[in-house]
TrEMBL record:
It comes from the Bacteria. Signal peptide: none annotated. This is Dinucleotide-binding enzyme. InterPro entries: NAD(P)-bd_dom_sf, P5C_Rdtase_cat_N, STEAP_metalloreductase. It comes from Bradyrhizobium japonicum. It is an enzyme of class 1 (oxidoreductase).
Length: 199
């Protein structure tokens, strides 16, 4: 399984730290050329490699960490997203009327035709996401939701590999609504920094 993080701001870099901590290869890309990202990527760890957007999108799993308004540009970079898993780590801080009455991830899914879309890694502040998720007696929780049950399996596996405790919330418009932001309305689980103890 190959991974890419698109967007290299605070959240993208926080996720890159999580991959580097576990020595998992990940491509990082943004609107800026790879040469501009390379020094920061190298500073995070040797498994974090800056690539062009086109090259990064060859990954099996793509994590969206761009500002919400830029997701359509990323979607246009590939003619088809079939066979790919897209993890939406963004928060839709736009007026609800701009989302056609949908939750932000359902709106994003329309742009990534053919992809399996999973909402995840969006409810924590970047500093918490970057920190070691394993603490004495437990693992930091990440919430996952998707309309396709099969889509969450590889993301659950990735979250565990990164040291997090994944909790599935069901479909986007059901439990997933708890981790969605629409305009100034935040889901109840956003910013909840929870840990799950080892069984």
């Amino acid at each position: 399984m190959s991974y890419a993080i698109v967007g290299f701001g605070k959240v993208g870099q926080a996720l890159a730290h999580a991959f580097a901590r576990k020595n998992i290869d990940v491509s990082v890309a943004s609107r800026r050329p790879p040469e501009a990202l390379a020094p920061q990527a190298r500073a995070i760890g040797p498994t974090v490699v800056a690539r062009s957007l086109r090259d990064a999108l060859e990954a099996d799993t793509v994590i969206l960490a761009v500002p919400f308004g830029e997701h359509r540009e990323v979607a246009k970079a590939l003619p088809s997203w079939k066979g790919k898993t897209v993890i939406d780590a963004m928060n839709g801080l736009v007026p609800p009327e701009e989302l056609d009455g949908l939750l932000s991830s359902a709106f994003v899914a329309k742009a990534f035709t053919g992809a399996k879309l999973v909402k995840g890694f969006n409810h924590l502040a970047a500093a918490k996401l970057a920190a070691d998720p394993i603490v004495e007696g437990g693992h930091r929780v990440v919430f996952l939701s998707a309309d396709d049950e099969d889509a969450t399996a590889p993301v659950v596996a990735l979250a565990k590999q990164l040291g997090f405790a994944p909790i599935k919330l069901g479909k986007l418009n059901e439990g997933g609504a708890l981790v969605h932001a629409r305009g100034r309305i935040w889901g109840q689980l956003i910013f909840q920094d929870l840990f799950r103890k080892e069984q």
